[in-house]
Each structure stands twice: as structure tokens, then as C-alpha cells.
Amino acid sequence: xRKPEFIARQSRRPTGLLGAIVARVMARETRPENERALHxxxxxxxxxLIDIGCxxxxxxxxxxxxxxxxxxxxxDFSEVMLERALARNRDAVWDTRLTFHSADTAALPFPDKRFxxxxxxxxxxxxxxxxxxxxEAFRVLRHGGRFVLCYRSTADRRAVHGFPDTVYRFPSxxxxxxxxxxxxxxxxxxxxxxxxxHLTHWSIAEKP
Length: 208
What we know:
Blueprint: H1 5-12, H2 16-29, H3 31-41, E1 49-52, H4 58-66, E2 72-76, H5 79-88, H6 90-94, E3 98-102, E4 115-121, H7 130-140, E5 141-151, H8 157-162, H9 173-182, E6 189-195, E7 198-206
Parallel strand pairs: 1-2, 1-4, 2-3, 4-5
Antiparallel strand pairs: 5-7, 6-7
């Protein structure tokens, strides 16, 4: 059954009381994908990480539990999500190792070569022009930095038919890899797994 459009829009940008509920659900449902993305980043103590479209902030919380992050950041344009992310990561924020920013991920509020690692999970569907957002990820990464993009694709017919195309646009793996190369990343590698019944991809790319 296709998800109602108003729920799909809340998944894109949670707002109000319904958005707060959606945030809690998303934090639980996306945990396996986020954990896999973190392992693929090959994190180390002192890494500077940006979560592009950080949502509920759970991924940064888990990253900081795996290794002690430094000078890291989360970016989202949902105030509901940012409030939750700040509350979840209050210790790291208080310690000034982590900051959160309200911004469009097509124009990240950071200088060039700011971070050593970057990730973005279940965001690409909502980007009208993915190349613009991926170019920003490339810009803020240092040379040799690693980027992990997690997503479901056109290969997952359940996803394609289950979400309204007025809100979600599922790319193909080939499209993602070609766009990553277009904006300057080295040849990406994509790993695919079925998680909780969902065919999920993680494309890993490095900045030369």
C-alpha cells in the first residue's frame, strides 16, 4: 500500500507534533542502515565527521560512541529533527566536539576541506538536483576524505511503488555512481544488502 503523501512529506521534513512522532519512528527504523554506514566510513579517534541530513542525530551519537569525534557536525533543515539531535548529543555539543546547523544541504555552511569523513542516509530521494548536494559533500571534504551515501534504489520495487513520486525520487545505483564521479569523487564502490526486507545500497567514494 502506498504511503500517504502527507506522511511522506513528514519523512522529508518533519514538522510539529506529527513530525516528532515521525522522528522517533525513523530513529528506530533506520538504525541498521546507519550502523552499516558508520562501519563503512572506517572511523578513527579524532575524526571530523559531517552527517548531511542528520535528522534525529542518532547516527552521530553512535559514531561518537564508537570513536571520540572531533570538530564534527550535523546539518538538517527540520527544526524538529535538530531539536531531537541536540538533545540526544548534548554531551558532545557541550564539549564543543559536535555542532548542529539548520541549513539546506545544497549549500552547506562550512568552508572547503573542513571534514575528514562524511555520510548521508536516506536523503537523496528528496534532492531535486542530486549533483548539487553531492558536490557540496565533495567540497567540504579534505583530500583523501571518505563519503558514504546510503539509499534505496529503483531496484527495490517495493520502495518505488510504496512511496508517492511527488515526494520521493529513487535513483538507480548507476545514476548515483555516475553523479559521484561527475562531481569529482574517485570511482565509487557500492555494497548492497537486504535489511529488514529492504534492498539497501551504500555507495562509498573518496576525494582524491
